[in-house]
Amino acid sequence: MRPILTFGNSRLAFVLLAVLASGDSFYGMRHMIFIFRNQGSRWRILYMNPDANEPSVTGEDGAAGSVSLLSAVASRIVGEGPEPPPPAVELVDPPIGAVLPRYPVRPDISWRSEAPATADFIIESQFGQPGADPDWSVSSLTFARVSRATQPFRQKAPFGAGSQPHRWRIWTLARSGAVSVSAWRTLIFSN
Q: If you write DSSP's letter for every residue of 28-80 in order, what string do you get?
């Protein structure tokens, strides 16, 4: 294992590792991404992708894979100022455990926030297999594309891999790199 790229500040750190691995179904080089956030006295993993062949994030224009994940998040951090974490968002819709169609049009997700207008929202989503305790996928990250003019903020769900459970939450990213994260909200797509 060797670090390829490490950067960040006192609030948020980014690490891209090259890992030589072998197992029953794999032999070769893998790339792993970690995003750590400082929670006062210790660092915690905020995001991990154990097999990031092409680490990317859905861009503001909706194009997947157009921007490196690490660059997209890091480009929004512009300082080290003494800023507390922004307030976490309050998820509004859909309600917890909602069963909704994802086709032909994905449902809206919505949230409220008291964060400053300079903060960015990142939607983290995962899908799981049906069952009592789903085995969740690696997270996908999407920068929210919402108007700051009215609340609640609303946009089409940028996720929906199939007829199965999905969960999502919102990161609020301040310009200093301070991050707050909402609770998870689960919904089930019926088609």
A: EEEEEEEEEEE-SSSEEEEEEETT-SS-EEB-TTS-TTSEEHHHHHHTT----
